[in-house]
Amino acid sequence: MFFSKSHVFVCFLGVFCLLGGSAIGQSLLQKQVSVDAKNKRLSEVLAAIGRQGNFYFSYNSNIIRKDSIVSLTARGKTVKEVLDMLLGEHCQYVETDKYVILQPTEREKWYTISGFITDGQTGDALPDVTVFERQQLVAAITGKDGFFKLQLKDREKYRSAEITVSKGFYIDTSISLIKGYDQEVALTIVPEVYSLPGIVVTQHSGMERSWLGKLLVSSKLKTQNLNLGKFFVDKPYQFSLVPGLGTHGKMSGQVANKFSLNVLGGYSAGVEGFEVAGLFNIDKKDVQYVQTAGIFNIVLGNTKGAQVAGVSNFIEGKATGAQCAGVINKAGKVDGAQVGGVVNIAFDTVNGAQASGFVNAATVANTQIAGFVNIAEHIDGIQIAGFINLAERINGMQLAGFINLADQVDGMQLAGFVNIAGTVKGVQMAGFINIADSCDYPIGLVNIVGNGDASLGVTVDDLGTTTLSLRSGGRILYGIVGIGVNAYQSAGLVGVEAGLGAHIPISRRFRINTEFSSMSLFDFGAQSVIDNGFRVLPAMRLGRFEVFAGGGINISFAAVNKPLSSTLNTRLWEDQMRGGDQATIRVAALAGIQFRL
Predict the structure, then answer these.
(1) What is d(CA 60, CA 79) in angstroms, rounded to the nearest whole number?
(2) Is 201 a residue whose pLDDT tops 50?
(3) Phi and psi (nearest 5°) for 569?
(4) Under 8 Å CB-to-CB from 351, ≥6 apart: which residues?
């Protein structure tokens, strides 16, 4: 059989394309190389192999000893075969672009990155420089010699260590390092040239200079705040003992949390969820939903929701919602309610209610309630005081247990004893005493009502969480607080519960309890579960005991070693979120018994 020249050319071209395609798709480790080395340094042999295969090797010299003397002869072997002969079975190889990365087979769970930071222009060592790893939020501050040291976890979900160096008036510098190995680096940063048309003071700039800031925030945290003024991240939870000693360490001031539990005191960028502390909470930016502390809360931004403190709440911005403190509440502007045992102060305007045992003060107020004195220049609403009301002008009502004082009233004055006003356009009314000792509709986590309903009980849910809970409130609404434990992991998880509920009476012995609850579980490490749900619980009274059981819909967010396991196995939807957390919607169940106090 004869072939024309054109046939031969086509066949040759096809073979060439097949060979070319094979070469293009060939991995770096499968390329063939030849080595003839006798008493040569390992680094020189690796470089020769890389030149033959047109790629480069990347390795840590503390692990792969590049000065080792080796001898090897190999002809037409693959790169992997040659590396196995050179390095044995204690190394693994990872291909990326034009690099072959040499790694030990067994990697450390923890590793250290250390080094020195110098000025790129002068070469001098730089103190007070913040060096932090962006993914794990681990930070260190250099000493006088410019030295730093970071201890990191070798987690599979992180491909590398992302190190950032930051200092005020210097340009931020970031590098990516191979994870998993102890290594030392030398880094330089250069000053940044600023154009200063003027000086701007923001609402978030004064905390570290206040006397409380000097007392409670360490010098290292203040330095960190100066260096990382524009760096903030969101995280699901924080657990801390005192500022700087917790899950986020020295980076706590740069992290806004969904849930924050602080044994003594906490310091964070902000909260969007629930924050509780034994003594105090300090937040540099905004706080939303619920914040409670044994002594005080300080927020340099705005709040939205409820603030509860044993002594004082201080908001530099606007308070939208409720402030409740044993002594004093202060806010730039109030759109909601201030409740204080002694004093409430709004620097600007109150659109809502101020209630305190002693003094309320506001430029403009809709409702003021005080046990002793109310002070306001203008009121479009109601003043209520146990003793005296003071106002320039009122377009509404004044109600006092003893005296009302106002230049003008366009509405009604009502006092238990005396009304005093320059002009009244409306009605003045005085009695003697009004007393209310019951409330069917309290809204709060813990409620103490004279004729209310309070119970202490134990519940178990479909995830296996056992909780000791206090349910307290009025005839209809009540609050829920509790502590729980879940042993589905060998080490176990502990948690806190908060929620609101409503009683629906059916008969003298039977009622239906409807509840919205949020349970936060954690192991003081990397594992956490946030389980939010609405449930309907039919309940039967047996003397002073009440037994109940029911179910509802729960939404869970879990960062755990193994998937959540429900005894009902009734998942309606589940997904893996970007950060690796497991999101689940399921039909949940709860049962329990409680003793009516």
Answers:
(1) 19
(2) no
(3) 55, 50
(4) 334, 335, 336, 366
Residue 9 has a pLDDT of: 43
Tally the C-alpha atoms within 13 A of residue 576's C-alpha that lie toward its C-beta: 4
Instruction: Quote the tokens at residue 402.
Output: 């003893």
DSSP 475-523: SSEEEEEEEEEE-SSSS-EEEEEEEEEEEEE-SSSEEEEEEEEEEEEE-
Q: Does residue 503 have a pLDDT over 80?
A: yes
* Per-residue pLDDT tens over the stretch 2-58: 344 444 444 444 444 444 444 445 688 899 999 998 889 988 999 999 999 899 988
If DSSP codes are grouped into helix, strand and coil, which group holds residue 525?
Answer: coil
Structure token pair of residue 152: 């990191």
Could you tell me how many helices (H) and strands (E) the chain has, helices first? 5, 43
- On the 0-12 / 13-18 / 19+ scale of CB atoms within 10 A, 39 is exposed
Where do the domains of the chain lie, and which CATH numbers do they carry?
A: 27-104 (3.55.50.30), 110-189 (2.60.40.4130), 236-430 (no CATH), 453-596 (2.40.160.20)
- The dihedral built from the CA positions of residue 412, 339, 237 and 152, taken in this order, carries a sign that is positive
CA distance 137 to 153: 11
At residue 337, what is the residue type?
A: A
Structure tokens at 389: 């009301």
User: Which pTM does this prediction carry?
Assistant: 0.41
Do 367 and 374 contact (CB within 8 A), yes or no? no
